Amino acid sequence: MTKQTKTSAVASGRTPRLALGGCLFAAYFCEFPPFPAGDTGLKIGILLGDDIGLEVVPECVKVMKAAAERAGLAIEWTELPIGRRGHELHGDTLPAVTEEALHDLDGWIMGPIGHAAYPRNDPTWVMPPVRKRFELFAAVRPSRSYPKVASIHKNVDIVFVRELSEGMLYSESVVAGLPEFRPNDEITVAMRVITRRGSNRVAREAFEIARTRKRKKVTAAHKEPVYRLACGMFAEECRKVAREYPDVAYEEAMIDTVSMKLVMEPQQFDVVVTTNQFGDILTDIGAGLVGGLGLAPGLCVGERQAMAQATHGSAPDIAGCGLANPYAMIVSGQMLMAWVGRKHKEPKAVAAAERMQAAIEKIITEGSHLTKDLGGNASTSEMGDAIAAVV
């Protein structure tokens, strides 16, 4: 087994499952130091997740492996248990062995988590708090249409940048206590948190992305006239950052107006940055515009690590049937490859990401190896195989 395909099934309790998949996002992030001399290359984790995660994540890894081999990039793969598998092996959906191992990685691919079906009122059965534990502060979610894929609108190419660590708090976003409570049966109290640091860094991420795109435009979506302190602070930080990027056009719009314009004329948007819950809603609107959640990739970004995770859920109703569309997961892996390449000034990773992007473009354009939701007849693995073959 070569360095490029080396896999460690750390604490997984079973034989590693790897395969091939691929595609779509330009590298743009602030840079990290290059790999130390003698380093074996990238260290990327594989977390299958639940349900269709066991099908789409291997396709993503399949394409990443193919691209890395073509680019001469060494990757050490580490498979780690999470979700149901984590609970089966270690009694928790985010086992300590998994959390410890993630600290040593450059990034990881995580499949969807079927937390809606988890037992309630059991602290060992929760949505794994990966974003909080590793301070992944921004979700980067492209929304792009393709000529041969049915969609409400054509010529859509938007990147949504959503703040992840603040807003309306929930169990994953706090380190102690509960973010909402019910003092009596008639009242529920919840909290929304906005900080200057959180707003500033997500805005900066958006401007860095916009700087690499053709239109170079950022739209900050908020509701400052109503939430003058909370949304006001977010808007203030966006304006501060905007002054540092004179080459990027900047505008602000009310969240309800942005929602309406996305439905009516989404082509006017380039990069949209917003707070947590607003972003959660806008990104699903964006996915709906271009064909659904099967076309909604995502990358959760931190200061030194990133997590590739598609926007869609675990779809237990089609799990194991070979029907799941691997596009979003594969593109998420491509985004991770590009991000790590830029962070570490690793040209081989950038080249591998470019190969993945070209491969997905080719398969989508040809339309001959697409899953049923995209108008084709290919299975999950057949679509992944087709992309990997042209990398």
Which helices and strands appear, and what pairs or packs with what?
Blueprint: E1 7-8, E2 42-47, H1 53-71, E3 75-79, H2 83-90, H3 96-102, E4 107-110, H4 130-133, E5 138-144, E6 157-163, E7 167-168, E8 180-184, E9 187-190, E10 192-193, H5 196-211, E11 217-222, H6 230-242, E12 249-254, H7 255-264, E13 271-274, H8 276-290, E14 299-301, E15 306-308, H9 327-343, H10 347-366, H11 380-390
Parallel strand pairs: 1-3, 2-3, 2-4, 4-15, 6-13, 11-12, 11-13
Antiparallel strand pairs: 5-6, 5-14, 7-10, 8-9, 14-15
Amount of helix:
25-40%
Total beta strand runs: 15
Task: Domain count, please report it.
Answer: 2
What's the story with the biggest beta sheet? 11 strands, mixed
Shape: globular
Explained architecture:
The protein has 11 helices and 15 strands. 36% of the residues lie in helices and 17% in strands. Strand 8 (180-184) and strand 9 (187-190) form a beta hairpin. It has 2 domains: 1-126 and 304-391, Isopropylmalate Dehydrogenase (3-Layer(aba) Sandwich), CATH 3.40.718.10; 152-290, Isopropylmalate Dehydrogenase (3-Layer(aba) Sandwich). The strands form 3 sheets. An 11-stranded mixed beta sheet has the order 1-3-2-4-15-14-5-6-13-11-12, sandwiched between helices. Strands 7-10 form a two-stranded antiparallel ribbon. The model is unreliable at 1-38 (pLDDT under 50). It is α/β, with parallel strands linked by helices and 391 residues long. The longest helix is centred in the last third of the chain and has 20 residues, at 347-366. Helix 5 packs across helix 6 (230-242).
